[in-house]
Amino acid sequence: MLNQFEIHGGVVKNLNAFLAERGIDLKTAMDAEETNKLVAAIIHEGLPGMVRRIYSLQKMQTFFWEKKDLMVDYVAARLEAAEKKAQARK
Asked: Which of 26, 45, 35, 44 has its CA nearest to residue 65?
């Protein structure tokens, strides 16, 4: 299901700002439960409205925590893809 969604520019910006503010990388953020939940919340906010209604923030936070090793790779790949897409537009 997650492969159907891209991380759009606003989420990338918010996530990068969050990581910079904390002075941590994505892996470090995903390894700590508190920051993992915050990463999930940032990404959840960027999902389409219908998906957010079906897939609650609490469910997403639980999923991100339980599957953190999978999700760190997924989110990193999506961030990289978004960055490449932005560079291609320039």
From this structure: 35
Cα radius of gyration rounded to whole Å, the chain: 13
Residue 34 structural domain? 2-78
Determine phi and psi for 67, rounding to 5 degrees. Answer: -115, 35
Q: Is residue 85 part of a domain?
A: no
Compute how many other C-beta atoms are within 10 angstroms of the C-beta atom of residue 39. Answer: 23
How many residues appear in the chain?
Answer: 90
Contact 35, 15 (CB under 8 A): no
pLDDT of 45 above 90: yes
pLDDT digits (tens, 9 = 90+) for 48-58: 889 889 999 99
39, two tokens: 């990463």
Grouping H, G, I as helix, E, B as strand and the rest as coil, residue 56 is coil
Q: State which amino acid sits at residue 38.
A: L
